[in-house]
Amino acid sequence: MSSSPQPHSASPADWWAGARPHTWANALAPVIAGTGAAAFQGSASWWRALLALGVAWALIIGVNYANDYSDGIRGTDEDRSGPLRLTGSGIAAPRAVKRAAFLSFAVAGVLGVALSLSSSWWLILVGAGCIAGAWFYTGGSRPYGYRGLGEVAVFVFFGLVAVLGTEYTQAGAASWVGLICAVGVGSISAAVNLANNLRDIPSDAASGKITLAVRIGDAPTRRLFCGLVAVPFVVSLFLAVSATWWALLGLLAVPLGVVGTRPVRRGATGGALIPVLGLTGRAMLVWSVAMFAAFLLA
C-alpha cells in the first residue's frame, strides 16, 4: 500500500507550512523600519503600527497562498526542490487554497481600510493596488511574476510602499530617511524572493515560468543576490553620516548577511539553498529592528 498523502488531506501543520512563515520577515521588517522613520520625525503611533503590521502580515500570507494556488494549477510546482506546496502536491483542493488566499486578502483589506481612515482615505486605493499586485504576481492570464518582474514588485510593495506607507500613516508625511530605509528593506526583501527563484531555476525554466533568475541565468543571479543583501548595510553607513551615527547599529546584522549569502557564493543548488531564505529574512529583520532602535535613540 502506498504511503503517499491522499488528495485534499492537508493537516493544520500543512496549512501553516503553506503560509510560509520563513517569508514573514518580509512583512514585519518594513513596518518596523517605517515606524522607526516616523519616530525619527517624533510622530510614532503604536496602534497605527500594529494595524500596519496586521495588514502586511495578512497580505504576505495571502500572497503565499495565492502563489501556491496559481503555480499549482499551472503545474509549475510539480518538480521543485523547495518545501511541499498544498496545491501542487495534491494534499489540498485548489479551491480551498484560493479561498485561503482571498480570506487573507480580505483581512488585509479590512485592516487597511481602518488604517487609511485614521490617516488619509486615499491610502485605500494604494491598499487595493497592493492586493491586486499580490494576486496577479502569479494569478490571472498574464502573471507578471512569470515575466521576470517579481523582484521589482517585492521591492516596490514590501519596500517603498510598506515602509513609506507605514511612516506616512503615523507621521502624516514621508521623509527622505524613510525613503532611504525603504530602499534598504526593499532590496534585501527582493533578495529573499531572488534566492527562492535561484533555487527553482531548473524547474521554472522547464515549466515556462520565466522569472528574473531564469532570464539572466545562474551566475548573474548569484551576484545580484549578494549585491541586494549588501544594500541595507550601505544604507546604514549613509544614514550614519547624514542622519544619526546610531544608524551604525544596522551593521549588527552583517554576520547574518554573510552567513546567508555563503551558500549562494559557494554555488549551492536545489535544497541546499533553502536555508538562505530564512537566514536572509532574519538579517533583514535584525537590520530593521536595529534601525528602529537607532531612530529612537536619536
Q: What can you see in these coordinates?
A:
The protein has 298 residues and is mostly helical. The chain has one domain. The protein is built from 13 helices and no strands. It has helices at 12-18, 25-40, 46-74, 86-89, 94-117, 123-136, 150-171, 176-199, 201-207, 212-216, 218-242, 254-265, 274-297. Mean pLDDT is 92; it is low at 1-6. Pathway: Quinol/quinone metabolism; menaquinone biosynthesis; menaquinol from 1,4-dihydroxy-2-naphthoate: step 1/2.
Main beta sheet:
none
CA-to-CA gap between the ends? 65 Å
Instruction: Please count the helical segments.
Output: 13
How would you describe the shape? globular
Average pLDDT rating: 92
Q: Give the low-pLDDT segments.
A: 1-6
User: What is the count of distinct domains?
Assistant: 1
Radius of gyration: 19 Å
Helix/strand-derived category reads mainly alpha
SSE sequence, one letter per element:
HHHHHHHHHHHHH
Number of strand segments: 0
Q: Helix amount, in percent? A: over 70%
Strand % is under 5%
